[in-house]
Amino acid sequence: MTSQHVEHVFDMLPVMAEAPDFRWELRGQDRPQLQLFDDGPQLRIGKGAYRGLEFLEVEARRIVNDIPEAAGLPFRHTINAYRGCSHACSYCFARPTHGYLNLDSGRDFETKIVVKVNAVDLVRAETHPSRWGGELIAMGTNTDPYQPAEGKYRLTQGIVEVLGERANPFSVLTKSSLVLRDLDLLADVARRVAIHVDFSIGTLDDDVWRSTEPGTPHPRRRVEAMAKLNAAGVPSGALVAPVLPGLSDHPDQLREVVRACVDAGARSIHPLLLHLGRGVKEHYLRWLGVTKPELVPLHITSYRGRKRLPDAQRALSELVRGLVDEFGGTPS
Length: 332
Known about the structure:
TIM Barrel, 12 strands, 332 residues, alpha/beta, 5-stranded mixed β-sheet
């Protein structure tokens, strides 16, 4: 995946979710995107390691989403078994999609996790050779497939098993070391199918990580997971993303991330500067106003009327390419 493709992926993600008329509807109504059970969504209150979370179990009408060819992405199909994410990243591009369900993009997004309980069965049906051509499927495009909910429901694990049985290529993007639970499975599939696992690692700075990604495993655990996957024959790389202006964009911070990823055998390393689309921008600026108010004017000025910074992105890409070369990494 080229850095240009990566930029387009993140640029398109908010509209790659299910259609904008996404809403809660009961069976029998006009083509609902999700089907509730007859008495509404099955609500499971998280306990123990899942305390503070609510799982809204629903049935999806379909699970493999089609992406328009005009999007210019390196994949045409995605799977998202969950909606919402308890990683609670302050900058998450997917936050506005919770609004399609009449839930808010703040606390609800982080604590009310929609679980498509029939996801594995749908994948098995929709990728049957009689109706599917075996195209690459991307996971992690709108919610982390290995977020904590996966430890409870194992939907991603089941999907990987099905795609492996089908010899269907796929990619995974995650911030979680939980992927190592499926190391043996992924290694077995990788011997037969073209797959790729990427980790989002925007910083190794402890303070920045704690404040911006409070629900994620430490980024160094992601680096360790990357190394273990590569050692097991599962191609794995890194998105240095998002790089946050004023928080994680210092050259020394980027040098630390790139060096660690190269040492972990990263098959590719792509940087991506923070994108602030509609809905995300408002949430992020509110968060920034509480945690780093001195940075708010910079963001308001820089992102006024736009959601990305092309010139700054080009400079960032050049810097990271130079660091990859310096540390003897694999050219992306």
